[in-house]
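Handoff note, outgoing to incoming analyst
You'll be picking up this chain. Sequence as last confirmed:
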Amino acid sequence: MAVLAAAVILIHLLWIVLVLVGVIWTRGRPVWTAIHLACLVWGIVVEVGPWPCPLTMLEDYLEARGHEHMAGASFILHWVRALIYPNAPYWLVTTAGVTACAIILAIYAWRAWVWWGNKDPRA
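Most recent structure output, in case you need it:
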């Protein structure tokens, strides 16, 4: 179970990285853009809403089943977990996450505005 818990923690980190920097990859890729926008909306809903993140719940479940605690975790997993769950006030983490998502949504809005502005109305 400890290996599965570690895998879920790494997947969680990769998900967060996708949400934060996916906008770089999506330019000119409409399918990836749609996927990334869905990830952004999900990120905002989980941060602001009352629902827990399913990855967090799965991590907790696997750690409880394997009787694995952070005291016995590897050095790398310790720091990965610290990145995912920073030791900061909840309101600060939520504000930072929602602000980052709002900036990314603004980038998408700007891209859409430029794209629609460059359309030939005669076409």
